[in-house]
Amino acid sequence: MIGRFVAGVGERVSWVFRRTAPDPFVLAVLLTLATLGLAVLLTDTSLHRAVRYWSGLESAPGRPEGSNTGVWSLLAFSMQMCLILVTGTALASAPIVDRGLERLARLPRTCAQAAAMIAAVACALAVVNWGLGLVAGAVLARKVGVSMESRGRAAHYPLLAAAGYLGLMVWHGGFSGSAPLSMTTEGGIRASLGAASTATPIPLSGTLLSPMNLVITGGLLVLCPLMAWLLSPKDASAMRQASAFGAGATKPGRPDVAESTDPADSVRLPSPDERKPLLPRILEDSPIVTVLLVGVIGWWALDYYLPRQDGAIAWGQSGLQNLSLNAVNLTMLMLGLLLHGTPMRYARAIERGAVGCAGILLQFPLYAGIMAVMRESGMTALLATRIAEVASPTTLPVLAFLAAGVTNLFVPSGGGQWSVQGPIMLEAGEAAGVSPGVMCMAVAYGDQLTNMLQPFWALPLLGITGVKARDIVGYTSVVMVAGGVWIGLWLLVF
After folding, report:
1. What are phi and psi for residue 67, nearest 5 degrees?
2. Which of 151, 181, 341, 464 is at 20 to 30 A from 309, Cα to Cα?
3. Residue 152: other Cβ atoms inside 10 A
4. How confident is the model at residue 271, as a pLDDT?
5. What CA–CA distance (Å, rounded) separates 83 from 97?
6. pTM, two decimal places
7. Taking a C-beta distance cutoff of 8 angstroms, is the pair 189, 197 a contact?
8. Quick one: pLDDT at residue 167?
9. Lowest-confidence segment of 174-188, 279-293, 396-410, 440-454 by average pLDDT
10. Are the C-beta atoms of 87 and 297 separated by less than 8 Å?
11. CA 306 to CA 301: how far, in whole Å?
């Protein structure tokens, strides 16, 4: 009874979003215009100045100016996101990884089992590192969708893709959470909140390893797969197979073999030339160059993951304690090169994955501009201040959580959002007698919650799976509501 009710709600909400939700690029443009308008209405910022903030021509007094401000402030991050997409896709296409994923993808027998498995894997890996969870969830969703169709089993591919995105619902309570990690040292506090911040370090025992976070994040690790299971359509006619989205089709006469129809796979790539001269053939089509580069990266990996001090491994200084996006990308580059074997095989895999970067390249500058206007005009600080003024010690964490969820729609960056909201929320918490760790996690939970509505982080997943944002947001929004209730209740308890 509950499963049929939840599935029905999911189908109705998905139906509405499929018919009303604009393309992510159009949404980014609309959010840009809305942000400019709100800056003029709610603050003393003129439209001319708001546009200058947006374009990077001007920063608020006291902030450094330069070429990488406004719409250009996420250039480095955009490259990181492109790399996480293409290196993750290339790694997944390596023969040995592909076979392993194929075996895993063949385990589910029903759509509900498939959605729950994908969500469990994506969420578990996102607790370790959000980038890892995002790429793994997307690749696994695609593989499972193709496998289910090739075996003649009914599956709703948009739900599988949505399940692969659910890791972004738990990431800020995990070990790559930018807000709690930035608060562990004085240097991190200065970098995230500014040199003038008077905040004191918060140990992980007060944030990520606190009883509150263990309950909330641990519960989400169960809730997200459960919701994915319950959202599975009960009517076979509602199923939409992977081939409808270009993710795979069945070869005629071979129901057990899937043939990709992804536009990325149809890109005309240079084929190996058996008649190429000896030296290029040795350098391009043998493992020699790959082994040399893998050796260099491997040297870094040993020093990063297994640092030694006084002849013993210093686990407390290991990169495993705080995986960065750059470290994940470099690790996936090393593993991809190693598993593909030759430079040209890996180069072709990268070229196929690069097609999915179009959305990132087009939309990230717009969101960077939105973030700049929100920050420089003072709108984010205004929202946080208003919340702090009306809250009581009991309701302050919940209201901070909700405010962070709204802000995330305009500033879809955990670190960027914390840098603006953090000082106000910490000050409000101190005045109300609320623990700094609780306030930090309240903002972190709000940031991750509305990722289920904000297509910013979904762009790599959309590129890998081939679905549109409107296809998945109906399902992710239902999970968002359930997760929001869970988080809000425990914030009241703690």
Report:
1. -75, -25
2. 181
3. 9
4. 52
5. 18
6. 0.81
7. yes
8. 95
9. 174-188
10. no
11. 8
DSSP state of 257: E
Q: Backbone dihedral region of 152: left (phi > 0), alpha (psi from -120 to 50 degrees) or beta?
A: left
DSSP letter for 262, please.
Answer: -
The answer on pLDDT for 324 being more than 80 is: no
Pull the structure tokens for residue 181.
């990690």
Confidence band, pLDDT 50/70/90 cuts, at residue 491: very high
Distance CA 168, CA 159 (A): 15
The separation between CA 238 and the C-alpha centre of its own chain, rounded to angstroms, equals: 28
How many other C-beta atoms can be found within 10 angstroms of the C-beta atom of residue 385? 16
Distance of alpha carbon 436 from alpha carbon 136, whole angstroms:
33
Measure the N-to-C terminal CA separation of the chain; round to a whole number of Å.
33
Cα 192 from Cα 195, distance rounded (Å): 9
Radius of gyration (C-alpha) of the chain in whole angstroms: 23
The tokens for 222 are 């169960």
Separation between Cα atoms, residue 163 and residue 170, nearest integer Å: 13
Strands 308-309, 254-259: pairing is unpaired
Q: What is the pLDDT of residue 254?
A: 36
Backbone angles phi, psi at 261, to 5 degrees: -120, 20
Tell me how crowded residue 419 is: count the other CB atoms within 10 A of its CB.
Answer: 22
Give the model confidence (pLDDT) of 105-137 as tens digits: 999 999 999 999 999 999 998 898 787 788 889
